[in-house]
């Protein structure tokens, strides 16, 4: 809409023009957005289909699953750790007591080796640990370095033996 203003003598003073109304969303933007969503949808669909095909065709052997379980430590936490009766009795001895959190950290981050007695499914984990020891002569406390050894059955995270030396 155009508005012209004149003085009474007829001289042109000002020309005002109302701006065109701008749309909140341009139809071209909607078309581009729809094309982008369609491309993402198709890419996701093809990814899911290829993943489903791969899941169907891949079969892991039991030894591979056991190996991955040992490496990734799935299901391992201090709450999930179990103990054999012998290991539980050793936990009641104050001289041998090792907190479950330390044993869990030894299993999670320690060196993994085969069981010395060659039991199937059992593995030995070793890590360094420090323990506060009292010097009875001087009445002082110092940290002493030990090697923590934990033997565990990885199938259900049962500790059968632990020792620090």
Automatic annotation (TrEMBL):
Q: Which domain of life is it from?
A: Bacteria
Q: What is this protein called?
A: Uncharacterized protein
- Which organism was this protein described from? Rosenbergiella gaditana
